[in-house]
Design brief:
Elements (H helix, E strand, L loop, with lengths): L1 H14 L5 E17 L4 E19 L4 E20 L3 E20 L6 E20 L2 E4 L11 E12 L4 E10 L12 E14 L2 H14 L1
Antiparallel strand pairs: 1-2, 1-9, 2-3, 3-4, 4-5, 5-6, 5-7, 7-8, 8-9
Length: 219
């Protein structure tokens, strides 16, 4: 129920105030790492190259700020390797697929092109995942009875550049701030850090710039 309510709120935000709205698509690469700790082990997963892509919506407020919610497919995970005395060489390759909804509050100086930067919360929903342990693959299940929780929150940051023709380029970082470990006894935890770069395109950037220009002329 909570997930459906959150999704409905995001949809309402996307369709509100269309006069200054800009819709876009983006794709790029993500670099993710993770850290797992429990009473038995503590594992730092090293960075793994992943894929990310999705849609975004930008609504300028007529000043120097804008609001940009996004809906992205984002892969997270990492790699771990250790030679243990008890079992020998242990190699783990973890891939987790998420639907990520970050809500960015941007500063763009009131310009339709140039640098912009922002920060905001993100809502992450687990879709699927796999773990390869010494070349043997197993599925990762999300949920209270699964391997990891199906939802976690994060804090995201973004820095980008928008061109006059609608092309955009950005770098982002996402740090999970809630524990994804299902069994939290003994201070067990699982957290992820992801950063990456994306290229995108704003489909109606020129139309939006003309609308802002007309309003400034009237007022």
């Amino acid at each position: 129920m909570k997930k459906h309510t959150l999704f409905l709120m995001v949809v309402l935000l996307l369709v509100s105030y269309p006069i200054f709205a800009q819709f876009g698509a983006q794709a790029g690469v993500a670099f993710s790492s993770a850290k797992e700790k429990n009473e038995v082990i503590s594992m730092d997963f090293t960075t793994k190259t992943m894929f990310t892509g999705g849609l975004f919506y930008r609504r300028d407020f007529g000043g120097k700020f804008a609001f940009q919610p996004e809906i992205n497919f984002l892969q997270k995970g990492g790699k771990y390797s250790e030679n243990m005395v008890e079992i020998g060489q242990m190699d783990i390759d973890l891939t987790l697929n998420y639907l990520e909804i970050p809500l960015y509050f941007l500063y763009n100086g009131g310009k339709t092109s140039g640098l912009y930067a922002g920060i905001g919360p993100s809502f992450n929903f687990g879709l699927s995942g796999t773990v390869v342990f010494n070349e043997e693959s197993e599925d990762i299940n999300f949920g209270d009875d699964g391997d990891l929780k199906g939802f976690h929150m994060g804090i995201n940051g973004i820095v980008g550049y928008q061109m006059e023709n609608g092309l955009t380029f950005n770098g982002f970082v996402s740090q999970s701030i809630t524990n994804s470990e299902v069994d939290t006894e003994g201070d067990a935890s699982f957290n992820m850090l992801t950063f990456g770069i994306r290229a995108g395109y704003l489909f109606n950037v020129n139309k939006n710039a003309k609308a802002q220009s007309k309003l400034k002329t009237v007022f």
